[in-house]
């Protein structure tokens, strides 16, 4: 007789990955229970990195923040190799791996609060055929009209004791407790003047007139191979229900961390200049705020990293 349910909290990859396609009795998979739900938080396609399995193995597999490096963790590259040579584990090494347990524990605490009549956050996840890249693009980021599960579409699920979903599902979380929050997406349309970039653009959202709105940070990663004149994306979460429904404006403050290699001719790193035409921020409930101005420039003119530019986003449509 099968067990009713097994929940895998970032199932271990070292020593188990080679058994993924053989020797089923040595690993967790969907044949072990009527329902196998799995949370992946420290996975990696590389053998030397990540303590959790990269491949989906359950009836439903949740990948918070893509299932790899978790926000708030300073993960070490090649963590499996490092732990072998150091003959031990540190908080830094296992931060993302332990996050699965912390997320699941919080989901149980929130469920108890809701059953007691409270309005606690649910870890809402989205089924995404195109995996994490499609989730960041917003392909699977539908509008949810309210917090009741009855209003969720078939492509929307949640993890916890009252798990719901099927297949591979994605969500974003906060980088510290409470991890569950209102999920946000940033969409930036770059100008045709913008050349190749390599680095991370950090967008801090805030509103001084709404003290309940906890500042949220969304990061967008640029890769040198990306073509110019493109649209880039980022996802994040802010504190649950801290964005007022009547909030018509928010401020976006930009910082840029350049990781481009040095020029072939000199030892200096090329000065990054970002040009964009439009930025949109939207939440999981269908609200959106926009800023539109062609060839808006974000320039690191004095070697500065933080607070390069601040703009106001409003609910007004672009002309």
UniProtKB/TrEMBL annotation:
CC terms in the record's Gene Ontology section: extracellular space
Gene Ontology biological process terms from the UniProt entry: lipid catabolic process
InterPro entries, A to Z: AB_hydrolase_fold, Lipase, TAG_lipase
GO molecular function, one term: lipase activity
Alphabetically ordered keywords of this record: Secreted
Residue ranges constituting the Lipase domain according to the UniProt record: 3-179
Protein origin, superkingdom: Eukaryota
PANTHER family: LIPASE (PTHR11610), LIPASE DOMAIN-CONTAINING PROTEIN-RELATED (PTHR11610:SF173)
Name of this protein: Lipase domain-containing protein
Species of origin: Phyllotreta striolata (Striped flea beetle)
């Amino acid at each position: 007789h099968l067990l009713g349910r097994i929940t895998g909290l970032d199932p271990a990859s070292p020593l188990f990955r080679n058994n993924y396609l053989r020797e089923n009795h040595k690993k967790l998979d969907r044949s072990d229970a009527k329902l196998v739900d799995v949370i992946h938080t420290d996975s990696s396609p590389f053998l030397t990195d990540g303590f959790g399995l990269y491949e989906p193995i359950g009836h439903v597999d949740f990948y918070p923040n893509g299932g790899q490096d978790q926000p708030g963790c300073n993960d070490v590259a090649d963590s499996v190799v490092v732990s072998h040579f150091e003959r031990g584990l540190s908080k830094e090494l296992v931060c993302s791996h332990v996050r699965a347990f912390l997320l699941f524990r919080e989901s149980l605490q929130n469920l108890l609060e809701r059953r007691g009549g409270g309005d606690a956050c649910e870890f809402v996840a989205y089924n995404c055929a195109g995996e994490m890249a499609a989730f960041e693009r917003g392909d699977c980021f539908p509008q949810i009209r309210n917090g009741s599960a009855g209003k969720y579409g078939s492509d929307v699920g949640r993890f916890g004791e009252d798990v719901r979903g099927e297949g591979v599902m994605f969500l974003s979380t906060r980088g510290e407790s409470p991890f569950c929050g209102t999920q946000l997406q940033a969409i930036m349309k770059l100008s045709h003047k913008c050349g190749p970039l390599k680095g991370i653009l950090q967008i801090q959202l805030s509103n001084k007139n709404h003290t309940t709105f906890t500042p949220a940070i969304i990061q967008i990663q640029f890769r040198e191979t990306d073509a110019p004149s493109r649209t880039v994306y980022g996802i994040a979460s802010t504190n649950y229900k801290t964005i007022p429904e009547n909030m018509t404006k928010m401020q976006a403050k930009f910082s840029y961390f350049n990781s481009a290699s040095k020029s072939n001719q000199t030892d200096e790193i090329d000065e990054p200049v970002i040009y964009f035409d439009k930025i949109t921020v939207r939440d999981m409930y269908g609200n959106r705020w926009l800023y539109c101005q062609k060839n808006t420039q974000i320039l690191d003119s004095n070697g500065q990293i933080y607070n390069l530019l601040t703009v106001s986003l409003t609910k007004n449509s672009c002309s």
